[in-house]
Amino acid sequence: MIPLSFKRAFWVPFALVGCMWVVMGGEWLADIDLSHWGILPRTLSGLRGVVFGPLLHGNVEHLAANTVPFLVLGGGIWYFYRPIAFKLFFWSWLMAGLWTWAGGRPAYHIGASGLIYAFAAFLFFSGVVRRNVRLAAISLIVVFLYGSMIWGILPILPEYSWEGHLSGAVGGLILAFYYRNQGPQKKKHSWGQEEWISHEMTYADSEDIQYFYDEKEK
User: Fold this and answer.
1) Over the stretch 125-154, which tens digit does the pLDDT of each residue have?
2) In sequence order, what are the residues at sequence separation of 6 or more whose Cβ sits closer than 8 angstroms to the Cβ of residue 137?
3) Which 3 state secondary structure label does DSSP give 12?
4) What values do phi and psi take at 34, rounded to 5?
5) 113: which residues sit within 8 A by CB, 6+ positions away?
């Protein structure tokens, strides 16, 4: 049986990805292109792209390439950092979008890649700065699965929004340091053993603990 907290961790990422696919489907059915709702740097109308840009994609291949990383990394945020997950999503969205608007090339920037880079950077650096064994393991998994993403922040392929990638990565790094004292922390007992805890235990967590207790009793 999958713990309830694990299933709940993917509700928000799934909902956002669902919105992305609905938008893509709507564009296809109506035969329209909503790219002009993306981020157009240093223009007043382009500011709306800060909100809507991550929901728009150039084609099905573009969206499909972003779907799995967004679900995996977004789910990791909500599972391991649930008390601050909403803040992380909000600030990642805002910083990646605004910085791309301020410093990007004069073209429409669309796609969820900026958020993906923000999530990846946060998960990696948060595991490092917290000196948390479990979170450090998540950092290594992120590097193993998405280590090649480092090339995406360089202006190598002009058809990609490397500005959005870089903005998201820097935002994730900043958030990892800013929220280093919030979310999962470690507690030292008097006999020197360490226990990893979260400052806030949700109802879902208590259900999972009860489930494991019940299983042990069987």
Assistant:
1) 998 898 877 777 888 888 888 878 888 898
2) 127
3) helix
4) -100, 15
5) 66, 152, 160, 161, 164, 165, 168
172 with 119: CB under 8 angstroms? yes
Pairing mode, strands 184-188 and 194-198: antiparallel
- What sign results for the dihedral spanned by CA atoms 138, 141, 146, 147? positive
pLDDT at 139: 81
The CATH code that applies to domain 4-217 is: 1.20.1540.10
Contact between 114 and 166 under an 8 Å Cβ cutoff? The reply is no
Angle at alpha carbon of residue 170, lines to 166 and 173, rounded to 5° = 140
Q: How many CA atoms lie within 13 A of 32 on its CB side?
A: 9
Res 15 pLDDT > 80: yes
Question: Could you state, in order of their start, the residue ranges of all structural domains in the chain?
Answer: 4-217
